[in-house]
Design a protein that fits this description.
The complex is a heterodimer of chains A (about 475) and B (about 625).
Chain A: H1 3-8, H2 10-13, H3 16-31, H4 38-59, E1 65-66, E2 71-72, H5 75-92, H6 103-122, H7 126-144, H8 150-181, H9 195-212, H10 219-227, H11 230-255, H12 264-283, H13 288-312, H14 316-343, H15 360-363, H16 365-379, H17 385-399, H18 403-428, H19 440-455, H20 463-469
Helix pairs in contact in A: 3-4, 3-6, 4-5, 4-6, 5-6, 5-11, 5-14, 6-7, 7-8, 7-11, 8-9, 8-10, 9-11, 10-11, 10-13, 11-13, 11-14, 12-13, 12-18, 13-14, 13-17, 14-16, 14-17, 14-19, 16-18, 16-19, 17-18
Chain B: H1 7-25, H2 27-52, E1 59-65, E2 69-75, H3 77-100, H4 107-125, H5 130-148, H6 155-186, H7 196-200, H8 205-212, H9 214-231, H10 240-243, H11 249-259, H12 262-270, H13 272-276, H14 279-302, H15 306-326, H16 328-331, H17 334-363, H18 376-379, H19 381-394, H20 401-419, H21 424-452, H22 459-462, H23 473-484, H24 489-496, H25 507-529, H26 532-535, H27 542-548, H28 553-601, H29 606-626
Antiparallel strand pairs in B: 1-2
Helix pairs in contact in B: 1-2, 1-4, 2-3, 2-4, 3-4, 3-11, 3-17, 3-23, 4-5, 4-11, 5-6, 5-11, 6-9, 9-12, 9-14, 11-17, 12-15, 12-17, 14-15, 14-21, 15-17, 15-20, 15-21, 17-19, 17-20, 17-23, 17-24, 19-21, 19-23, 20-21, 20-25, 21-25
The chains are: A mainly alpha (about 475), B mainly alpha (about 625).
């Protein structure tokens, strides 16, 4: 086949956003020989990610299936691809001050990670998913280690070690999947009813559950979030988590087609353990960033509730509502968790304690209000987007006849209110003379997150449109 | 965006924070801010009048809120006359309050609250949805609580405020239940179940009857009337209003004339189609109103506290309004016109009476016993003349405004008697209303003669003086209106409802109310215009005792229901509560301990993490196996 034809084939055009990002990444690496200013690269990354979103929107709606079904382009994948890019966009500009050396490498890595994310958002083949996922993982190992302090390196090492275990679980799971199904393409294997299918299911769940930081695969996350630069923690706990959520959704709803498998209690139990563990551990935590890390673990538990509802499969309406709520939750989650991690940057000390926030409300009321908005959104208090995300999620639980699970989730929300409100109380204390870092790279991300907590509420009116995307999850 | 009509209620509501903050630095400013905000409301209301006087299309603008609540504004002729009345009377009272509250150290709080009070009432009046209506209704209740207890350092005032709040809360609860029933019956079947525009539209009634059914509609009507009885102080929920006199007199004027008690009448008038479709509820309204009119009138005769007499007279007059509405089963929508007209008239003369009482009380150092007054006409002629105009209007002396409004209601109740085939039970409303008219005259002239004539019976009364003429201007305006307003009776009826019928009863029957007034004068003049009252002693009579103790209703509520019934229940709850909260504390400390345990697991050593992982995953496997797997 001649190369011109290949470039014009419809299969190929779908890869244009990825190719574009890759080209920019290599250009960055070349420029890195001469220019060392991180701002240049962050601006480049920012613009190219924006262009990538544009390219995705322009090219991807044209085709639905490429490379014999390995990639399937649809609105559902597009939605997630775009919100994952948004999570990168959100951290690109503020991250400049945390990248001291070799900025070109950091931002090029970020673009490579984004390429892998876009591919993963559309892939329907376990091997492609695996490769894309590894692309994300290895990229984030590098980004975690970027601070070069002892803590960063320790975090990166732990992340890397546990990550390798996750990788091996995924590989084993894929292998067992292949044994049962005879292909790596995602298709319904549940009907096969064999032990290898069960093993594949659990292995894949555990493997991808690592990235989502589900209990008991969560322990790396606390240390890694704590040890990384703030912007990287924000990215780790949002972008990669959303990716893992998407992949778990896709593998389990397409590959194992829960209609005929009643393993929904696996998801129910894991989500209960994860929510409860995260919230209770956060209650007694005094390190600010670790509080957010634990709360991030708890949030993953809420996300898995989506699978519980779909697995229980009470009615098609409830399932659709649950997936819709999951999509909305992921989007809201990016800003509320990302904003929370960026707010840690306010404290000038290393290893910020929650008490170090005291007096913030008097020194910078605008910042304090922004953080309060983010916190009440995390706690799920109206009228913030976090409330609506939780509301629709719990509504889907109720309409899926999982009343008791909704009650447990609500009790968990109530527990979480304790440590979020405690932070608010601390901010209003007058004791201590803490110095706060109010530079733009902290100020803007937090303020933007707070604004988004209200702006995203408007998206509820688009739910009927987004609901049509849900069908795309199952492919063609 | 928002049409200018929204600012009818937004203007005073916005004035609330502004005058609170501005008044903190400049005390005097707050009164002007509040007054100007209400002036704006009045002007806007008047603009609405000019806009829709000729047309029957209401002004309707709303936004969807929580799915099917069309929160917004809905102004038809009914709402229009209410907002004109509320904003005008409230404006007069505010003008007077600038003088009356002039020396109060917390007057910025007072004016902020009265502005909010008026704003809430205006908002209630032009709500386009019953949920919104209810929110403003509650806001009115809250403001009344704050204002009745405005002199919170007086123990009476703070307990009166609590009483007002709790008693009206009983009504609010009934109202809320009624709302819920109506909503549940209509939810998901119509676009906006509690929309006022939907309820008042005759075209929607076949649908409503179909979905709700007559029985439920009657229950809803009764529950709404329960809510209205709480707010509008009808038997047996009237007990809060006499105590509410502990607030500043201008607050009493606001509550009685403009902002609070008319809300109940307005509620029934607003959702009147509900009542016209359930005769049972309507008859209940009629009998309750007529009974209250007589009942409160009798208590008014034996009370000595000037403001409380006025309070009972309000209860009694509100009874007339409800009775007018209750006659709707016979005269149809004309009932709204009759009731609303009396509401307007009552607002004007009651504001006048309260404000002149305020002038008296200011000179009398808040001494409210009429037996301690006397001879005031000579000492403060201007005030007492104004009060006299208020008194003759209240007692419906011919050609004052009340003569037209009240006698129409009494005549209409005769029609009710006629339409029900002259049966005995249909005779009762008319009888009670006519006797109520007698009591009205008696208590009115009793207090007026006691205060105005004779010799001063206390030090303070003998030194009373008129205030300057400027502060009396609002009163003079009100007095003028209460004298001439009666001439606009039919124009008013036609404005509210072009099809208002003109009540015609036998000539002799239509004369009876006037006879009653004369009879009342015949009783009071010999007794109270002279010193005759001091020579008779009726305190020993058993009837007197019963009436004097307000028919033991307060005692029933406080001693029997509250102390014997609710207090033990409440202490039982509180015991349970404290046990419960102890167990919650135990739970909380347990949770904290669990949290520290979880944190110890997170010790930073990666090898341990793998152990947790292996154990955890093994447990997951086990679970899957045990729970069935495939």
């Amino acid at each position: 086949m001649n190369i011109i034809n290949m470039l014009q084939s419809s299969d190929f055009t779908t890869l244009i956003p990825e190719l574009f990002l890759g080209a920019i990444a290599f250009i960055m690496l070349f420029l890195g020989i001469k220019y060392k200013n991180p701002k240049l690269y962050s601006a480049m990354a920012f613009i190219s990610l924006l262009i990538a979103i544009g390219l995705l929107l322009v090219f991807d709606s044209s085709v639905s299936q490429t490379y014999s079904g390995i990639l399937q382009i649809n609105d559902f994948g597009l939605f997630f691809a775009i919100i994952m890019i948004i999570s990168s966009l959100y951290m690109v500009l503020p991250s400049t001050r945390e990248v001291h050396e070799k900025p070109e490498l950091f931002y090029a890595t970020l673009l490579f990670v984004n390429i892998a994310m876009i591919v993963a958002a559309f892939s329907f083949n376990l091997i492609v998913i695996f490769i894309a996922f590894e692309g994300v993982s290895i990229g984030t190992y590098i980004m975690t280690a970027y601070g070069k302090s002892r803590r960063n390196l320790e975090a990166a090492t732990k992340y890397f070690f546990t990550g390798t275990i996750a990788t091996s679980f995924i590989l084993f799971g894929s292998a067992f999947f292949y044994i049962s199904a005879g292909t790596f393409n995602l298709q319904n294997v549940a009907a096969l009813q064999s032990h290898s299918v069960l093993i594949a299911l659990i292995f894949l769940f555990v493997g991808f559950g690592f990235k989502l930081a589900l209990v008991p695969m969560h322990q790396w996350a606390i240390d890694a979030y704590d040890g990384s630069p703030n912007s990287v923690s924000a990215f780790l706990s949002t972008g990669t988590k959303v990716l893992a959520f998407l992949i778990i959704l896709r593998i389990f709803l397409v590959g194992f087609s829960l209609e005929s498998v009643d393993v929904y209690y696996l998801f129910i139990i894991i989500s209960i353990i994860t929510m409860t563990y995260g919230n209770i551990a956060a209650i007694s935590e005094t390190n600010l960033k670790r509080v957010f890390a634990y709360s991030s673990v708890a949030q993953a538990g809420y996300l898995i509730l989506v699978l519980a509802v779909v697995g229980y499969n009470y009615s098609a309406n409830a399932n659709e509502l649950a997936i819709l709520a999951g999509m909305y939750y992921s989007l809201v989650y990016i800003f509320m968790k990302g904003g929370a991690f960026f707010s840690v940057g306010l404290v000038k000390k290393e290893n910020a304690k929650i008490d170090d926030l005291s007096g913030l409300a008097w020194k910078s009321p605008a910042m304090a209000i922004s953080i309060i908005v983010i916190l009440i959104s995390l706690a799920g208090v109206p009228p913030t987007a976090g409330f609506f995300a939780k509301y629709y999620l719990f509504l889907s639980l109720i309409s899926g006849q999982l009343w008791w699970l909704a009650v447990i989730a609500i009790v968990n929300s109530a527990i979480s209110v304790f440590y979020y409100l405690r932070l608010i109380v601390i901010m209003f204390r007058r004791d201590g003379d803490n110095q706060f870092d109010l530079s733009p790279s902290v100020y803007y991300p937090v303020a933007i997150a707070a604004i988004m907590m209200f702006a995203l509420v408007a998206l509820i009116y688009e739910f009927p449109t987004i609901q049509t995307y849900v069908l795309g999850l199952f492919g063609v | 965006m928002l049409d200018y009509e929204w600012f009818i209620f937004l203007s005073p509501v916005l004035a609330f924070p502004i005058s609170l903050v501005a008044g903190k630095y400049r005390r005097n400013l707050s009164g002007y801010i509040a007054t100007i905000s209400i002036l704006i409301s009045f002007i806007l209301s008047f603009m609405v009048y000019l806009q829709i006087r000729g047309s029957s299309t209401p002004i309707y603008q709303s936004y969807n809120w929580f799915g099917d609540i069309n929160a917004g504004i809905y102004i038809d002729h009914l709402a229009l006359v209410m907002i004109l009345m509320v904003s005008f009377v409230s404006l007069m009272i505010h003008l007077f309050a600038i003088y009356y509250m002039g020396k109060d150290p917390n007057k910025h709080v007072y004016f902020a609250e009265t502005a909010l009070f008026t704003g809430a009432m205006l908002g209630l009046t032009i709500s386009s949805n019953l949920v919104e209506f209810f929110l403003f209704w509650e806001l009115v209740g809250l403001c009344s609580y704050l204002l009745i207890g405005f002199w919170y350092f007086k123990p009476n005032a703070s307990s009166a405020a609590k009483k007002a709040f709790i008693v009206t809360r009983v009504g609010d609860l009934l109202f809320l239940i009624g709302l819920s029933i109506l909503y549940i019956s209509l939810a998901d079947k119509v676009a906006s179940p509690l929309s006022i525009a939907y309820i008042v539209n005759p075209a929607s009634w076949p649908q409503i009857m179909n979905y709700v059914g007559t029985t439920n509609l009657t229950i809803i009507g009764l529950l709404f009337m329960g809510g209205a009885a709480g707010k509008s102080a009808q038997f047996p929920l009237h007990v809060w209003i006499p105590d509410a006199m502990e607030g500043p007199t201008t607050v009493s004027a606001l509550i009685h004339a403009a902002t609070m008690v008319t809300a109940g009448v307005y509620l029934v008038a607003r959702v009147f189609p509900i009542y016209t479709h359930s005769t049972g509820a309507l008859d209940f309204v009629l009998f309750l109103g007529a009974f209250t009119a007589l009942f409160a009138g009798t208590i008014g005769i034996v009370v000595n506290d000037l403001k409380r007499i006025l309070a009972y007279s309000t209860i009694s007059q509100l009874g007339y309004m409800f009775a007018a509405l209750g006659i709707g089963s016979v005269i149809g929508d004309s009932a709204i016109s009759f009731a609303l007209y009396h509401t307007m008239v009552h607002a004007v003369f009651k504001a006048l009476l309260f404000l002149s009482a305020g002038v008296i009380l200011l000179t009398m150092m808040e001494l409210r016993d009429v037996k301690k007054m006397g001879g005031l006409w000579k000492r403060m002629p201007a005030t007492m003349t104004l009060m006299f105009i208020g008194a003759i209007t209240l007692s419906a002396i011919p050609f004052t405004a009340s003569y037209y409004s009240k006698d129409t209601i009494i005549d209409a109740s005769w029609q009710f008697f006629q339409a029900n085939g002259y049966s005995l039970y249909a005779f009762l409303p008319w009888l009670m209303l006519i006797l109520g008219a007698l009591t009205t005259t008696v208590y009115t002239f009793r207090f007026f003669f006691l205060a105005a004539l004779g010799k001063p019976r206390s030090e303070l009364a003998s030194e009373a003086k008129d205030p300057s003429k400027i502060v009396l201007i609002p009163l003079i305006i009100l007095a003028g209106i209460s004298l001439v307003m009666g001439q606009f009776q039919y124009a008013f009826y036609d404005f509210i409802d072009a099809a208002t019928i003109h009540v015609t009863v036998p000539y002799i029957i239509s004369m009876i109310p006037t006879m009653m007034v004369l009879l009342g004068l015949l009783i009071t003049i010999p007794l109270y215009a002279t010193n005759g009252w001091s020579s008779i002693n009726i305190t020993r009579s058993r009837l007197y005792k019963v009436v004097k103790n307000k028919y033991y209703l307060d005692r029933l509520f406080t001693n029997d229901i509250a102390e014997r019934g609710i207090l033990p229940l409440s202490s039982a709850f509180s015991t349970f509560e404290s046990r419960f909260s102890r167990s919650i504390e135990a739970l909380a400390s347990g949770t904290m301990k669990l949290g520290s345990f979880f944190r110890r697991l997170q010790n930073g050593v990666v090898e341990y993490y793998f152990i947790v992982l292996v154990i955890g995953i093994s447990v997951v496997f086990l679970m899957i196996e045990l729970l069935g797997g495939f």
